[in-house]
What does this fold into?
Amino acid sequence: MNNEVQLKIDGNKGFFYIDVDGKHEAMMTFVFAGEDKIIIDHTEVKPGNEGKGFGKKMVVKAVEYARENGIKIIPLCPFAKSVFDKVPEFRDVL
It folds into this structure.
């Protein structure tokens, strides 16, 4: 079972996702705001995956992506915002 977070970018938008047995079980969507910011607008974890930490894993991946690419994150999604509120170490990308 591969619970690695993957990334797909399509033009000015994209999503981080986790596949389990070939199916999208979790997804966090974002749009680019200019060249150097992404806006996380929605996080969705399919029923039955509660407690697996999928949502947080996707935020962690977004933070890594932002750091690697020198961009900032605007967490409009309430879930993503709650993770940033709880984890001060991630705030360098805000």
About this structure: The first helix runs from residue 54 to 69. The mean pLDDT is 96. DSSP finds two helices and five strands in the chain.
